[in-house]
Amino acid sequence: MRLGRRTLMTALCGIAACAVLAVGPAMALDLDAAKAQGWIGERRDGYIGLAVASAPAEARALVDTVNAERRAAYQSVAEQNSVPRDQVEALAGQKLIGRAAPGTFVMDAAGRWIRK
C-alpha cells in the first residue's frame, strides 16, 4: 500500500510524535539544553547530530540514545504504513527542522550546520 505524503505525515505525527520528539522527561531537558548550547542540531534525515566537534561526551551519548529511539519509532511507523523507513525519516526531518527553536542548529540541504 502506497500512502500519500499527507497521510504519511499524519501517521508520523499521530503515531510516533511522542516517541520521536519526547524521549522522556529527564532526557528531553538534556536534549533541549544540548541544543541551546549549540552542541546538537536536527538533521534532514530525522535524526540529531553533533553540530560541533568540541561537544562533550554527554552530548555524544545523548545523540546515540535519541537516534536509537527515533530509529525504532520511524521503523514502527514505516511498518504500520507499508512504506520505506527512509521516507518516514525524511518527513520527520522536515517537520523537526521546521519546529526547531530559533538560534538552534539545523542541517541545510548541503549538509552544513546553520543556525535557524
Number of helices: 4
State the separation between the terminal residues, measured CA to CA: 36 Å
Order of strands in the sheet with the most strands?
2-1-3-4
H/E series:
HHEEHHEE
Q: What are the low-pLDDT stretches, counting only 5+ consecutive residues below 50?
A: 15-26
Q: What do the pLDDT scores average to?
A: 84
Radius of gyration: 14 Å
| Biggest sheet layout | 4 strands, mixed
What share of the residues does DSSP label as strand, in percent? 5-15%
Class by SSE composition: alpha+beta
Kindly state the percentage of residues in helix: 55-70%
What distinguishing features does this structure have?
116 residues, alpha+beta, globular
How would you characterize the overall build of this protein?
With 116 residues, the chain is α+β, with helices and mostly antiparallel strands. It has 4 helices and 4 strands; from the N terminus they run ααββααββ. The protein has helices at residues 5-21, 25-36, 57-81, 85-99; strands at residues 40-42, 48-50, 105-107, 113-115. A 4-stranded mixed beta sheet has the order 2-1-3-4. Strand 1 and strand 2 (48-50) form a beta hairpin. It is globular, with a radius of gyration of 14 Å. It starts with a helix and ends with a strand.
